[in-house]
Amino acid sequence: MLTVAKTLVETAQSCTLATNELSISEVVDRVIALIAGVVALFGLSFKMSTDDLRESPNVDLAERLIGKGFEVRIYDQVVNPSRLVGTNLRYVMAKLPHLGRLLACEPQDALAGADVAIVSAGTPPVLAALAASPPRHLIDLSGGLGAEVEALPGYEGLGW
Question: Per-residue pLDDT for the chain (160 aa), expressed as one digit of tens each?
Fold first, then answer.
């Protein structure tokens, strides 16, 4: 019984990783097609309200966009590089060793001059910044950003 449960968990994890990979590739392809130079990424951690970056698809997304030559600015109200420890710190330093330079203190700082915003964490400060200064393109990875943001020109929902 334990072996069957373990196999089911491993299969579910494998499916999740494959789905994440497809989603990351789709976002990167869309950003490339938009001929964007500056990308604002809202949300970096594995899930909202945590600073756990291990296996976060957004860390992989940021890494790939940087590798493709995009300037990436990240806002995540929970992530603070000086408080990361252990395997979490080792993971992010291996993927994004320059994280401190990429992080913006406020959402509007990440958004300033951005051609595209990618939103996985639609916190109230992020939603307010998007409404006040909408980018030309907005890719919503979470859904449920609200009617005001979803009505912005250039809005696209993806991954939900």
Answer: 667 555 555 554 454 544 566 679 999 999 999 988 999 999 998 777 788 888 889 999 999 999 999 999 999 988 888 888 998 889 889 999 989 999 999 999 999 999 999 999 889 999 999 999 999 999 999 888 999 999 999 999 986 5
Phi and psi at residue 77, in whole multiples of 5°?
-65, -15
Q: Tally Cβ neighbours within 10 Å of residue 11.
A: 10
Q: What is the CA radius of gyration of the chain?
A: 16
Strands 155-157 and 137-140, bridge-based pairing: parallel
CATH homologous superfamily for 2-157? Answer: NAD(P)-binding Rossmann-like Domain (3.40.50.720)
CA 31 to chain centre: 13
pTM for this structure? 0.84
